[in-house]
Every structure is written in C-alpha cells, then in structure tokens.
Amino acid sequence: MLIALSDIHENGNMRHASPQDAADNALVASIGALGVLQPVLVRPAPEGGYILIAGYRRFAAARLAGLQEIPAEVTLMGELQSELAQAAENVVRKPVDPVDLWQHIANLIDGGYSLQSAGAALGMTDRHIEQMQILSHIAPDLLEAMRGKAMPKWRILGTIASAPHEQQLTAFERHKHDEGTPPWASIAAECTAHRIPQERAWFDIATAGVVFEEDLFAEPGSPEQFTTADIAGFMKAQAIAVQNAIQERNEPAIMLEYSHSAQLPKLPTGWVYVERKEALSPRGKFKRAYAIAPANDWNDAGRVVDVVIKPAPTATKGTPGATNAPIRATDDMLEESETATPEAPEALPEDACQISKAGQDMLAEARNTALHAALRSTLRLTPEKATVALLIAYTAGNHSHKDILAALVAPDGTITTPEPRALAQMIGEALARSITITPPHRQTSTHLSAEYYNRSEWIGALIKADDLMPELDTPEFLACVGGRTLQTVAQNNVALEDLQDMPSKVAELRRWLCGRLPLWTPTHSGAPGPNTQPWAPKPEKARGEEVFQKMDKDVLAAQGNSHAGEAS
Fold first, then answer.
1. What are 372-420's pLDDT values in tens digits?
2. Same domain (yes/no): 280, 375
3. What does pTM read for this prediction?
4. How far apart are CA 484 and CA 482, in angstroms?
5. Domain for residue 552, yes or no?
C-alpha cells in the first residue's frame, strides 16, 4: 500500500548508517527514475500515523527525490520485535552476487535501456555502469567460475574483459585447475594487449590520426588511463615529431638508435655522455642526442629519451663532429721534445696493457658484444650455468648476500657450480633474505614499480606458498574482519548443518567462527604480470654470435666424435 511520507515517523532507536554522498545521491537518482521498488516496513503508531522499522535510506531518498507517497508494508510488531527486525536487516542482508548484477545490466541494455538510464535506475554513476556493462562481456565459462567466489581485483577484471573471448578461454583453460580459485592474475597476464600511453606522445594528438581510448578500469590520471593500440601509427608520428623538434630547436642535435641495456641513446664510437643542463651553443662541441624506444619494448615503447654528448678526447675518423686534420705541434711541445732526456720505458707486468680511456670504452663495448653473444648461446649457457649466473647477478652488490656470493665465486675468481639441490637451497636462502610481502596500503613508494611489489606474489604462487599458511581463524585476526565478510566466509566454509547455529550479531559471530575455518585464507599468492610482450627467442642470430660460430661448431663436432668413439 502507498502511505504519505508525512504520516511516517522515524524510529529514534534506529541505527543510522554513516553518510556516503556518492551512494546516497545514486539512490536518490534511482528512486527519481523508477520510484521505490521495495516497500519499507512500518508499524502503526499509538498516537497515529506509522513508525518506520526498516528502509531508512529509501525513506530519506524518496523525500529528497520529491515523492509524496511511498510503498510500505504494515506489520503489527511491538517495540522489541521492531528493534530485532532492524538488526536483521542491517546484519543479515546478503549482497547481490557481482556476476548476477553484470548480467542483469546486460539484460537491461539488451531490453532497450541506455547506459545512462540503466545507471540511474540502479543508482550508479555513468562511469560505474559502463564498467559493469564491459564486465558482462566476459566469456560465460569465466563468469561461471567467478560466480559465488571472491572477486579478482578490479584491474584484473578489466584486463580480462577487454580481450576477445577466444583469448580469454585459451588463457582460462591453460591456467585453471580442478580445485580452488583460478589464478586470475595469470589469466589476465595472457589477455593483456600491447598499448602505448598517450603521455609519451610528442606529436599533436588532435591532428596525428592516432586514436587513444580510455581504459575505464585504470586509475584516473595514471598513464594507463588513455592508451592506443595503433603501435605502428604512434611510432611513425613520434619519429616525425622528434625530427621536427631537432630541426626547430636552436641547438645541434642528432637522432640515434636506442640502447636497451642503458635505456639511453646508443653512443657513436668516440663519443661520451655529458651531464649538462645549460642550453647548447649552436657552434659548440656538444650535441643533444635523441632516441626512441622501439615498439617491441613493451615497458617503454615510443618513449623519447635525450642526453648531451661530446667527442671523446681521441675522436676518430668517421665519428660525428670529429675532424680529420693532423695535430699541429705547438712551441711548448717542440721545446719539451728537445729538452727531454729519453729514458727507457718502465717495465710493465706481463698481464698489464697501456690503453687510453677511449680505448677502454671500445674494449668494453667489444667485451659486451662477446658477453651478450655467449649469454644468448644455448651451447655456452647451459641450464645449470644459467641458474648460477642469475644467482651471481642477484647476490652481487648486496652485503647481506655476501656469504652466498662467496660460495659461488672464490677470491681467485674460480666459479663453482653447486649440485642442483644445493643450488636451489642457496637460491631459496637468498630470496628469503630479501623477498617480503607488502600490504597494498603500504605500497606507497614512488620510485618502486608495481613489478617490484608483485615479485613476492609471483614467487609465492610458483612454489605454492599458500599451502604453508598458518590458520587465521583466531580472535586476533577475526577482530579485523568486517561483519558482512564474516557472514560470506561462514557460508562458504562452514558445514551446512552448522550454519543453523550461526549467530546474527557480529561480535558473537566472531567468537563462533574461532577454530571453524582451518583452511580459510582471504587472499592467495599471485598478481597481474607485466604489461609487456612475453619474450621469445629470435630466429636470427644474436648480435655478435658470429664471433663464436666456429667455436660452437667445434664443440658440437667434438661431442659428436666423442659419442662416435663410445659407440664403437
């Protein structure tokens, strides 16, 4: 029945929820569009009119929406019964399963509602209803796996929903298992698409023809909010913009290749980096070098980096800015040569070699070429040596790992390859000393990336660290868990016959659950992977591989001869 709002009186004993402007405004908008769909509960008042028992927020929102009447259900309850009914509504109310909500929104859209009208009807903002509509397009098999379970993080859901159904299903089939919650973070990692953030663009976005789209699940204001999947178009426009900048700026500048290892422009031979903040003179010896990170670098694709460079003291022919004029002898040089008494050169150690700084730079570049080629050679870097190399790289420079490094590298430089079990134990010890889990609210460092915090999650998922979790159904931990969460946990983890005795009050429920949830863990190890293209070996030879081609063939030939000898 419909009752005038002026005839309903609020119960002075009613517990009011703390105000939430966004939620309250959304409820007012919903009631303004569709009216009050669920009647409030009232009882007759002795002095006339009615006393409100349940539905305070609907009653207040209807008054703000300008309604004169509200649907109400009248019940004959005493004061004590009314208070119990209010407690039951606040404590026992069960939220709608998110999957059902997403599908309900999809049905509204299919039925002719616009996103805006559906959002107003359900009390949601335009952005929220758009997010829900996107999530309703997750593949049905994945939605069924989510139904009734703890939901993945919002960003993970958005990443999965943005991928084609075929890609979602392929990742889901690869990672799902018979028991437990699917590793949604790993599934999302396979659904990640290669996109470049808008903030890296040097070109005019309005005229370049590169379309940037908003990711509704990204943090507003973050680099991931506006991105483009037009990688080729972005890289072309970026290159043109940098070349135009070089031509327009009143300073000497050049475009160079990008160095993956240094994340800087790759230095030409005979040039060195310079730390210089002042403007460059058009006729000076300094140049500004630009480089663009290539498209296959998912972390930095399209990023423009620039440094100041200058010719090394011994610049050679063919380098930018180097001169080929012969060095003229000055009077000081002649005077020194005439008066100096020639002396026998000082004897050098057998392993010593006099090389200039420019020569040291060239030598380091040659050694890097050899090192990288050897690292990419499967004949040289066997699985055992690869593990030792990674452990050396990880422990070197960390004082707390010095003893582990000493077990691998002797003072004379001898390298030891431990047995596999001993090597695994050393790796585990090194990781245990440095890998820790940081709760999300403490991940506030601005100079640490998400991958830094997630490394412990990935390692924990790899070695199934969840199996060693201590029991959390203790009074200390349950005191930190909200009432609605406790009810959901109880329904999912306590036997059905025992749920009949579940208390309705939160304080009693906490005491009742102690010792009843031995296998319950609120979270599981795992996090989304890096937003980048997975590495794959290139079919062509790595740079510098020809240096070892003949030697590798000799190794294979020697192995073949050895096997032939054994066979004979």
1. 887 888 778 888 888 888 888 888 888 788 888 888 888 888 888 888 8
2. no
3. 0.44
4. 6
5. no
